[in-house]
Amino acid sequence: MRTLSREPWAMRHEPTRLAANRQFGRYNGIERHEVRQADVAGQSYVEQARRTREMLRSMDPEQVKQVIEFHRDLNFFEALALAKQEGKLIVPNDIHDGILTKTIDQEYLKQNYPVWTGTLLIYEAPDKKFGKKVFYSWEYYKVNYSISFTIPEQFQGKTNCALAIDHPDFKLVDLGKNKYEIRLAKEAEVHLIEQFPKENGRYLTDQGIPIGVAVVSSDHARYLWRFKVANITPLLRFVEEFANGKCIVDAYGRRGHTFNVHLVPLASASNTSDSHD
Known about the structure:
Layout lengths: L30 E5 L7 H16 L2 H5 L3 E6 L1 H11 L1 E3 L2 H10 L3 H7 L2 E9 L9 E8 L2 E8 L10 E6 L3 E7 L2 E6 L3 E7 L6 E6 L2 E6 L7 E5 L4 E8 L9 E4 L7 E7 H10 L2
């Protein structure tokens, strides 16, 4: 695999550390599937990260403060590379959703967001069935890039849905010539999100991912931004002043732009959880 140090994904900043105060949710009601694939990322790291993910969801806010690290000004490719290099977990969307909906400290939110989540979302154009592969291409500083994902057989033919995969159940593979592919780790958990909205708007959610029919107003709704075409994108969460702005779910795919990211050291989460048993 080629290094991610070349344009436009060069590491530029040293990380800083901040604490996160939150309550956690899960993918309740979203159909979860195990997809067996070759473990290209390394089973030991993936298994430890999965355990850390579950431990985070069971920890109280004071415990979480001790283990979350805050890293500034990384694009998503850099975030993936940093997490792999340091053997850490990128905090997933459902956890950030808890932070954004439960935290009343506006200064904290402004300091910590926008943030990349560790949740990758794959969706097709409205009313178009999932085929064998989803493909997305974009231009960044006059250079063309592309990314693809092979749809597991059990999801092919489904319409108006999305697939959500939490880090590190997926891996970014450099195919050369600015072409990338998302591959699944062994027995990756792929979450099928049915009734994924066809257009931008305010929706009720299943643990932070918009679904169903648009609503006029609700304290429990999130505002979705999505493309009208197929996309493979990490979810971005951030704070805005309009439309209950801390409930924005950005599924556009601003991969080359730099935002913040929260990582969790695997051993630290394990030790903190064990020490409070």
